[in-house]
Amino acid sequence: MYTQALNSSEGEDRNIEDAARAAQFQSRIDADERIEPNDWMPAAYRKTLTRQISQHAHSEIVGMLPEGNWITRAPSLRRKAALLAKVQDECGHGLYLYAAAETLGSSREELVDLMLAGKAKYSSIFNYPTLTWAEIGTIGWLVDGAAIMNQIPLCRCSYGPYARAMIRVCKEESFHQRQGFEIMLTLCRGTEEQKAMAQDALNRWWWPVLMMFGPPDQVSQHSDTSTKWKIKRFSNDELRQKFVDATVPQAQFLGLTIPDPGMKQNANGNWEYSAIDWEEFKQVLAGNGPCNRDRLAARRKAHEDGAWVREAAMAYAEKRRQRSALQAAE
Amino acid sequence: MATPNIPLWEVFIRSRNGLAHKHVGSLHATDATLALQAARDIYTRRGEGLSIWVVPSSAITASDPSEKGMMFEPAESKIYRHPTFYDVPEEVGHM
The complex's ipTM? Predict the structure, then answer.
């Protein structure tokens, strides 16, 4: 059940790590059982998942901004309707994920407040700007493509509510990638300028998209315990490689060049890519990407501008509650 | 200033006529009307449902998973509730 009400921590000391319980918990994980909200879990498992699921939710919500930027300027009604639907889906994904995070005992409002205060992270990719229409195509094709690679294994993650949310998300994500690829294909079959615009978008997004899979395996700080707890089923580098191998033939079909002159296919058929600039990744995560301040400012403004709506809806519900209580008393 | 909490609702959707409503997730809304509208927008964007129920999460009473052994024990020990407990000679055919 997805409720805070059922997750009241009163009378339960979650921080006492009973070794026997921890061992029993691990044996449930090893047996591929799903962990549900009211089951006993180690405090670190709860903390890791709250962090990961809420960051994932924030990413969906902040991810609406770069694409929302093009809704009013989409080149046709068909593209506009599709982009609107996609951005609405991202909002829905954020809400499924906040609901999953809440089952661990933090309220959505607390989690959102942490993000607005700049104390919670979201995917670094959304700190890059969308300068041209071709970037909307690139985001659908590559950013959503990379997200799918990451999310499909999460459908089997050990935490029930997260796994169930990911199943819904993945079902919807496939339309996102296909609409992005279709935009790219149309541009690549268009005029010289349109194809150049598509190439330019790929040039700017390729490396940031590879960074979406996170730091290389030897330095990733969360991987070991996440793997042990079956939150994570594949390593960052494994997923990155899968993504590159799937994407290279698609780029070839489009007639676009991946901006990595050193890239070559090895004997196993895998595409080997050049070194990733992890300093750039670190800088963007630290708040120094091209759009970090813009994104947070836009989220804060939306939150503040919506405050009166939340207050009015609460006041209205309270007035109705009082009125029906009065009527019942008469 | 911390954002005040808006009540939580559980959402149940009946996918096709003849099937029961099934829990699909939860959402925040200040009243039942808004909860229904939000449920439509969040959980039925692709024709997933013909009917929606929303229930305040606080109205649900749940069994305690840590007592599931005791709770469901009566069902474990009564094998005579299953058809396979009874022998029917093969000559009788399917029953």
Answer: 0.81
